[in-house]
Amino acid sequence: MRCAGARANRHRGEIEAVIDGERRILCLTLGALAELETAFSADNLAGLAERFAQGRLRAADIIRIVGAGLRGGGNLYTDHEVAEANVEGGVAGFAAIVGDLLTATFIGAGSENSARPL
């Protein structure tokens, strides 16, 4: 669990999002990525990244990604709690969180990281 007032560090792949009125840090740690590999039946990280790059996510996919990111950021959220959570913008707000989280994870804090293979 993080200290109150902690800020996201983009160099570690962390982002901030307001969920249920509280600022939360999300991060797709190795454990969170392994959780998503299993959930999406991906053989490896490259396969997981390719699946996300297709841009066709179901609501259940968004719930899994946000849930994994919350848990990776030290928050105690189940996927069921994510499904019941509120964010500004509703579904579009959740989609923006997922986009920001995937960008922070797979591209990194600086554009110089975008050319690096997984």
Low-confidence stretches: 111-118
The profile of the biggest β sheet is: 2 strands, antiparallel
Task: Tally the beta strands.
Answer: 2
Order of helices and strands: EEHHHHH
Radius of gyration: 13 Å
Side-by-side strand order of the widest sheet: 1-2
Structure annotation, total helices: 5
Overall pLDDT confidence: 88
Cα end-to-end separation: 28 Å
Helix content: 40-55%
Structural class: mainly alpha
Strand content: 5-15%
**How many structural domains can be distinguished in the coordinates?**
1
Structure explained in plain terms:
With 118 residues, this protein is mainly alpha-helical. It has one domain. The chain has 5 helices and 2 strands. The model is unreliable at 111-118 (pLDDT under 50).
